[in-house]
Amino acid sequence: MTEPVYHFPPPKRVMPPELQDLLLEEGSKIEGSDESALGTGIVSILGTARSGKTTLAYGMIDWIMAHTKRPVVLGSFPAVVLEEGVPEHWKGRVSTANPDQMHEIERGNRPVWLLDDAAANFSSRSSMTKKNIAWSKLAGVISHLGCTVIFTSQSLAGVDRTFFRFTEVVTVVRYMSDSGLRGERDEWRDDVDHAQYLLKKIHAGKPGGRRLRSFYVTVSTSPGRKPYRIVPYVRPHWLFEGITDRQRDMLSKPFGYMEASEISAIINGPPKRGRGRPRKTKEEHE
Amino acid sequence: MSNWTRREQEYDRIAASRLARLNGGVPRHIALGSRAALSLRWKLARMGLEGPHIDHAVALVDELSLAKILDHHPIGVRFATIPRAKRDLEVWDVGIN
């Protein structure tokens, strides 16, 4: 199946009301709804590897560029991707920073943060590390900071649960493998399972590829919102035809362009400090 | 939600999905009926009996068998056997074709 394509700027209707609610500036009119936008919250994009999570996130950023004045911070992106990878019409609006600086960067400008493969930075296995504890405190006040966080992940089970505790969350579900689904968090498994059922049903008889990329499903628990909404995936023209292969690769796999030490710092934490003053030996005491 | 409840729901979904495909698939009286319904059909065919009153008698046996089987099934499965028009999935209109 050939997905519809847009040339920048994308029409406002490309994003469903649930996503417009969090991506627009607070109080803006939502197309397709009588309500005004909340302007803050968490958009979690979920799907198996190569299911099109990151390209969908770039589509959201493109939409933000066209319909808002919000700055975008690409969390932990290597500088080289920012210099050489991003398209011309993003330049000046995007920057990069560490997520633990969320309360400092673009303060007052209500930025949108993209945390690609959040399980690397906010792993549920590291829930009691200093970084994740700090994030859990920060997550409680992101609505005060006016931030919207978009994160991508292959499983919500891999991401620290702080992400889902405090603020408005809209989950965007792309294709998920059966093994991924079996390991999903209990709280989300039924929703993700139903979204997979809808994806398979809407792709039935259509050549959407193994990864069912032509549609995605939004899951929203807010009163007044549609609990599940099937949305066609609309491709930005520039992302597939308007950039070089190297740029496309940089945007598709930004972590691959990090220095080994930077990836090590994400996986193992920052380098440990030396032990300081050497301990005295027994003989020295005497 | 307990594992047992989840498993029940999964079986419900599987059963409902199979029942929903019966139109044009396995005849309902074979999939969900009883041996009596088959015996009666053969008997009536051998005797060469035809007509609307015969069809009604066969339908009655089919429905009794079906109701007997569904007595032991959860409400989800029983609900799935209600004939109804299928709704198309609603898709958000993005304004681009």
Share of helix of chain B, binned: 55-70%
Rg of Cα set of chain B? 19 Å
Separation, N- and C-terminal Cα atoms of chain A: 81 Å
Oligomer: heterodimer
The largest beta-sheet of chain A arranges its strands as 4-3-5-6-2-7-8-9
Q: Spell the H/E element sequence of chain B.
A: HHHHH
Reported for the largest beta sheet of chain A, the result is: 8 strands, mixed
Query: Would you tell me the structural class of the helices and strands of chain B?
Result: mainly alpha
Mean pLDDT of chain A: 87
Give the uncertain stretches of chain B in residue-range form: none
Order of helices and strands of chain A: EHEHEHEEHHHEEHHEEEHHHH
Query: Helix- and strand-based class of chain A?
Result: alpha/beta
Question: How many E-type strands of chain B?
Answer: 0
Into which percentage range does the β-strand content of chain B fall? under 5%
Radius of gyration of chain A: 20 Å
Could you list the spans of chain A in which at least 5 consecutive residues all have pLDDT below 50? none
Walkthrough of the structure:
The complex is a heterodimer of chains A (286) and B (97). With 286 residues, chain A is an alpha/beta fold. Chain A is built from twelve helices and ten strands. Chain A has helices at 17-23, 53-67, 79-85, 118-121, 130-139, 142-145, 178-182, 186-203, 237-240, 245-252, 260-268, 282-285; strands spanning 5-6, 41-46, 72-75, 94-97, 112-115, 148-153, 169-173, 215-220, 228-232, 235-236. In chain A, the strands form two sheets. An eight-stranded mixed β-sheet of chain A has the order 4-3-5-6-2-7-8-9, sandwiched between helices. Chain A has a two-stranded parallel ribbon with strand order 1-10. The model of chain A has no long low-confidence stretch (mean pLDDT 87). Chain B is mostly helical and 97 residues long. Helices cover 63% and strands 0% of the residues of chain B. Chain B contains five helices and no strands. Chain B has helices at 3-20, 28-32, 35-47, 52-70, 75-80. In chain B, helix 3 packs antiparallel against helix 4. Chain B is flat and about 60 Å long. The N and C termini of chain B lie far apart (42 Å).
